[in-house]
Specification:
With about 375 residues, the protein is an alpha/beta fold. About 45% of the residues lie in helices and about 15% in strands. It has helices spanning about 20-35, 55-65, 85-100, 115-120, 125-140, 180-190, 200-220, 240-260, 275-280, 285-290, 300-315, 330-350; strands spanning about 1-5, 40, 70-80, 105-110, 145-150, 155-160, 170-175, 190-195, 225-235, 295-300, 320-325. It comes from Isoptericola halotolerans.
């Protein structure tokens, strides 16, 4: 099992300046790099307190790349349907070059009607736009004189520069919430996988991962990489950690419920059952989630016990991506949680954290 950090800002923008939040992200990323974590991961959301401080993962990860040396930089995910494939391919390749090949590209479909409306993208086209844009981006990375007849992105033969640093291209991940079909398609294509267990029952997620692994193997791609994202409230004092969990999970639910509220009057063939999302979110209970191990909280021993079960359920080879600074929890607690993760949680699991960067090492600069 490997570990990384996820950054997902969920709070009222009136309560914190963007600069303060980004400074905290930078400091935690440098800390994670020095401790030897596998990756930092940045989401994409727009226009609200539900992730709105993270509208462009590529820009934020570029800033992180300049401050770090070895940690991998993961989009978790960029929304393929909202971008033109030429611009997506070029900006991601540029980040891969600036970081000297540390980029992992996670692509997602998005699910908020307000975001689709703002970009003028029909929700019923989300699945096909996602699949075709990802396919086109990969072609633009690996081929010359690429043309496209996509209705939303028609262009004559072009060659995108810069080319990616990694050959043949950066690892591609597909973000899937509940869709087994998406997991199978990702496996067949040789892509890697990002999943979130919060809204997916464990048996369903196990079925999704089994289908993904079987599809990869059947297509001759060999083992893939699976990232699982958890919010984690880790501290020295169990009661304090649980109190933080209850407070900031309630904050998360409040903002998510507002963000998805338009689903009560919307329907889309590409998002079957999402009209029930509001009720599901409102029914969230922290203690039940803790008991189901869909949120991690407590002392290092508590969290190690939870992650041990995660490993048995989903595979010892998974990479766990932890959100340690939810809401307005604060940098002090997030940094302490990061230290506890490396010093006490990982050893209890027999997990290997890669060689740390020297404390006085300077960030790598282009030659």
């Amino acid at each position: 099992m490997q570990f990384g950090l996820t950054f997902f800002p969920v709070f009222d923008p009136a309560l914190r300046t963007p600069a303060d939040y980004y400074d905290e992200v930078m400091e935690l990323s440098v800390h994670a790099d020095r401790l030897g974590l596998e990756h930092v991961q940045v989401v994409e959301h727009q226009l609200s307190g539900y992730g709105g401080y993270s509208p462009d993962p590529v820009t934020l990860l570029t800033a992180i790349a300049a401050r770090t040396e070895r940690i991998r930089l993961t989009t978790g995910a960029v929304v393929a349907a909202f971008g033109h494939p030429i611009r997506l391919a070029a900006s991601l390749a540029l980040l891969d070059q600036l970081s000297h090949g540390r980029l992992d590209v996670g692509f997602g479909r998005a699910f908020l009607p307000t975001e689709f409306d703002a970009f003028g993208v029909p929700m019923d086209e989300s699945r096909v736009r996602f699949a075709r844009n990802v396919e086109t981006v990969v072609r633009l990375w690996t081929e010359e004189d690429v043309s496209s007849d996509l209705p939303w992105a028609t262009f004559d033969p072009v060659t995108v520069y810069p080319r990616p640093h990694q050959a043949p291209h950066p690892p591609v991940f597909v973000a899937s919430t509940t869709s087994l079909d998406s997991c199978v398609a990702a496996g067949r294509a040789g892509y890697h996988l990002q999943v979130v267990p919060t809204v997916t029952p464990r048996p369903q997620l196990q079925e999704m991962l089994a289908a993904y692994r079987e599809a990869r193997e059947s297509a001759g791609h060999g083992p893939g990489r699976v990232q699982i994202k958890y919010t984690c409230y880790l501290g020295d004092d169990r009661e304090v950690a649980l109190a933080d969990g209850r407070r900031w999970e309630a904050n998360y639910i409040e903002h998510m419920a507002t963000a998805v509220s338009s689903w009560s009057t919307r329907r889309s063939a590409d998002y079957a059952g999402y009209e029930q999302l509001v009720d599901k979110i409102r029914g969230y209970d922290f203690d039940r989630a803790l008991g189901n191990d869909t949120v991690l909280a407590g002392t290092p021993q508590d969290v190690a016990d939870q992650l041990g079960r995660v490993s048995r359920w989903f595979g010892e080879d998974v990479t766990v991506s932890l959100h340690l600074n939810p809401g307005l929890l604060g940098a002090v607690k997030a940094h302490r949680a990061l230290d506890l993760l490396v010093e006490e949680v990982a050893p209890r699991l027999g997990a290997t954290v890669t060689t740390p960067v020297a404390q006085d090492a300077a960030p790598a600069l282009p030659a």
